[in-house]
Write a structure and sequence with these properties.
Blueprint (H helix, E strand, L loop, with lengths): L5 H11 L6 H13 L2 H17 L1 E2 L6 E2 L5 H4 L4 E8 L2 H8 L6 E5 L17 H7 L7 E4 L5 H14 L5 E4 L15 H9 L2 E2 L1
Parallel strand pairs: 3-4, 3-5, 5-6
Antiparallel strand pairs: 1-2, 6-7
Length: 199
């Protein structure tokens, strides 16, 4: 039975498509938006459209940005000999919050997962290898999540990097197995970074 009318129903359906949003949360969000003044809803919808239209990927590290190069890749203060490989842009942000890592990043946009049909060609590994033609890179830190997929991806990348004359390290324990980097506190992330080991 249609309790709210087609417009509210459609809004609830769209909210419930978002990851981690169930029907009840989608209803709360929909009712919140509908009960706001029209200018609030308009700003919200404009922000969604602008973000979708203007977001790109950094041509160097592949993180999301609104320019050709992200602010980290543009910075002259970063250590260009060090690249940390992470699964998602939110993982990059998690490490930036520690205010201790001064190198560059590379965002894969996922992890190898045969069960989900995600292979090495479906994530940004090729772009990482392209960056290694520059002799400036001395170390790659593999900071993929401590999940089966993250570990599989780290092992795969480490094998690809063997022919290069660079150090390949993995973040140390301290990040919980099965955990995602975006939920880990700064101290744990810092300890994992400082205790990384060469592969």
């Amino acid at each position: 039975m249609d309790y709210y009318g087609s417009h509210i129903k459609k809004l609830i359906e769209e909210f419930s498509r978002l990851p981690g949003i169930g029907v009840k949360t989608a209803q709360r969000l929909a009712f919140y938006i509908v009960n706001q003044p029209e200018d609030v809803a308009k700003r919200f919808s404009e922000a969604l459209i602008e973000a979708k239209q203007n977001t790109k990927y950094c041509t160097q590290c592949c993180t999301i940005t609104d320019d050709e190069l992200c602010p980290i890749c543009k910075s002259q203060k970063r250590d260009k000999s060090l690249i940390m490989v992470v699964e998602e842009s939110k993982d990059l942000v998690a490490y930036e919050r520690t205010k201790q890592y001064r190198g560059l990043y590379h965002v894969l946009h996922g992890a190898v997962s045969p069960m989900l049909g995600i292979g090495p060609n479906d994530i940004r590994i090729k772009e990482l290898l392209t960056r290694l033609t520059d002799d400036e890179v001395k170390e790659i830190i593999l900071a993929t999540n401590s999940t089966v997929e993250g570990e599989t991806t780290a092992v795969y990348i480490s094998k690809l990097l063997k022919p290069f004359d660079i150090i390949v390290s993995r973040i140390a324990n301290g990040v919980p197995v099965g955990g995602n980097l975006e939920y880990v506190d700064e101290i744990t992330l810092l300890r994992a970074l400082e205790g990384r080991i060469e592969l």
